[in-house]
Structures are given as structure tokens and as C-alpha cells.
Design brief:
two-stranded antiparallel ribbon, mainly alpha, about 120 residues
């Protein structure tokens, strides 16, 4: 199984390297369109290789997806935590009731009754 994971990671690395080598041309990114930049009097312009823009876009998309799912699953995590707290509380109560029930009895008989 470990070798399959390494093979998949190697395949992904080969695809990313070949895509990066094929898309090395410079790309100019501007924060605002030209008319808005002229009106405001300033604009942020960056020139990057195309593959950095592609990889950064994929990374941002994955990050947004993770955050979206984490927020969406909050309700389920909250319900699981509540259930876990309730289960621990009930286990403590069962132990306390067994101890009260077996109070004054022989230890061996109390163990056998609990089993």
C-alpha cells in the first residue's frame, strides 16, 4: 500500500513539473482594470509565470474548500461532543449506582454480579 501511495505522489509530481515547464511564460496580473486604476490613481500590477498563477489558484481553492467543509461540519462535531459528554456522565452514574448497590456485600460476589 505504501508503494502505491509513493507511485501516485510521483505521478502527481511528474505532472506538476511538466505543467510548470510548459507554462513558464510571464503573465501580468493587475488588481483593477485600467479605467478604474486611472480614476483611483494607483494600481497593483504583478508579473508572474503562468504556472505559479495556476498552482496558487489550485492551492487557494483547496484551502477555501477545507475551510468551507470545516464550517459546514460544525453541527456534526458539536453533536458528537455532546453525545460523548453524555456517555461519560452516564458511565459515571452507572459506576456510582453499582457501588451503592454492592455496598456492604462481599467483594467477590459484587464482582460476579457486575459481570
Amino acid at each position: 500500500m505504501r508503494y502505491v501511495r509513493y507511485a501516485i505522489l510521483a505521478l502527481i509530481a511528474i505532472v506538476l513539473v511538466s505543467m510548470s515547464l510548459a507554462n513558464r511564460e510571464p503573465l501580468t496580473l493587475a488588481l483593477y482594470p485600467d479605467p478604474v486604476a486611472e480614476f483611483m490613481g494607483w494600481n497593483i500590477v504583478v508579473t508572474l509565470p503562468v504556472f505559479t498563477v495556476i498552482l496558487a489558484s489550485v492551492a487557494v481553492g483547496v484551502l477555501v474548500g477545507f475551510i468551507w467543509e470545516w464550517i459546514r461540519e460544525y453541527r456534526h462535531r458539536k453533536a458528537a461532543a455532546t453525545s460523548s459528554r453524555e456517555a461519560r456522565k452516564l458511565e459515571r452514574e452507572v459506576k456510582r449506582l453499582k457501588k451503592e448497590k454492592n455496598k456492604g456485600k462481599d467483594e467477590v460476589l459484587a464482582i460476579l454480579e457486575d459481570a
